[in-house]
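Quick start: what a row looks like.
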Amino acid sequence: MKLSRPGAEIWMPDGRAPAEALSRTTHMGIGAHQDDVEILAQRGILDCFDRRDRWFTAVVVTDGAGSARTGPYADYTDDQMRAVRRLEQKKAGLVGDYASADVKTPKAPPVIADLAAILSAARPEVVYTHNLADKHDTHVGTALRVIEACRTLPLDQRPSRVLGGEVWRDLDWMCDPDKVAIDVQDRESLTAALLGVFDSQITG
């Protein structure tokens, strides 16, 4: 699979060829930033963890260059932050190369085309992404691009379910019938370990 950005990377932890690895995907998380997927798609990760009949694929759309930085990361350049965020995501697995501005551009054809290619190759049953009421504009942009990418696919290739999760606020203000409650308490130590990988966001 060839993605449109030269810096985009497809990384498979078990060394399988991308086409083979993507084709086994049952659950997919598509997040704007490194560490978003591990929060918004916890249920999908837990459902696939240590299974041979379910496989999780993470897609990170942006490159991490615009990450907030304080503490030990305060003096890092954008290039250094890109490298840190890419390594963190590998420790946790598809790393994007788009800037936030690319994702927020309405009807961004390259972003939509890349997401559609990934979705078409993977054919996940369930996709987790950001919710459309998110306060972060890059999160909303990513969710919109995911929806647009899904709509480009033939009906029989679209995911059965697309869920928009919240990453850094709550959805208590929404009416209960408008929300899908997802229990993620069964492997709290696994979730904590995954999130702990992202030191640049916890410390910085």
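That is the whole record. The CA atoms of residues 106 and 141 lie 8 Å apart. The chain has one domain: 18-202.
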